[in-house]
């Protein structure tokens, strides 16, 4: 199979996997008070937001288009048609931001 044939195939996520667009902004960032934080500064256990592109059939509470909060340590990087994405497990996602869950607490009691 040539590389040209592979780019035309759709991707289906399996099990509890979530495909997210790789967050940009790994460079410098600015705090609320205006302090410039260089890209080389390491922040322990800093969580990252990303947009969901696709989900596997066993994913229960996340849909494509949601924003999810995850640890950069719990990821696998993949390139699809020249674009960089991350593959996460649903259990490694800490929070979901979506319009459809606006009035829900998100708590499991």
From TrEMBL:
**Record bears the keyword Hydrolase:** no
Quote one Gene Ontology molecular function term.
Answer: protein folding chaperone
Q: Name one Pfam family in it.
A: Cpn10
CDD domains per record: cpn10
Q: Which UniProt keywords apply?
A: Chaperone
Positions the record marks as coiled coil are none
Gene3D superfamilies, per the entry: GroES chaperonin
Q: Which domain of life is it from?
A: Bacteria
Listed InterPro entries: Chaperonin_GroES, Chaperonin_GroES_sf, GroES-like_sf
Instruction: State the family it belongs to.
Output: Belongs to the GroES chaperonin family.
- Report the function annotation for this chain: Together with the chaperonin GroEL, plays an essential role in assisting protein folding. The GroEL-GroES system forms a nano-cage that allows encapsulation of the non-native substrate proteins and provides a physical environment optimized to promote and accelerate protein folding. GroES binds to the apical surface of the GroEL ring, thereby capping the opening of the GroEL channel.
Instruction: Fill in the subunit field for this protein.
Output: Heptamer of 7 subunits arranged in a ring.
Quote the protein name from its UniProt record: 10 kDa chaperonin
Protein species of origin: Ferrithrix thermotolerans DSM 19514
Provide the taxonomic classification.
Bacteria, Bacillati, Actinomycetota, Acidimicrobiia, Acidimicrobiales
């Amino acid at each position: 199979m040539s590389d040209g044939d592979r780019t035309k195939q759709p991707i289906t996520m399996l099990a509890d996997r979530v495909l997210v667009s790789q967050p940009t902004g790994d460079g410098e960032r600015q705090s609320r008070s205006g302090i410039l934080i260089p890209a080389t500064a390491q922040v322990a256990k800093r969580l990252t937001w990303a947009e969901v592109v696709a989900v596997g059939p066993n994913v229960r509470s996340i849909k494509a288009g949601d924003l999810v909060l995850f640890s950069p340590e719990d990821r696998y990087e993949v390139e699809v048609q020249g674009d960089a994405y991350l593959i996460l497990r649903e259990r490694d996602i800490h929070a979901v931001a979506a319009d459809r869950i606006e009035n829900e607490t998100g708590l499991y009691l």
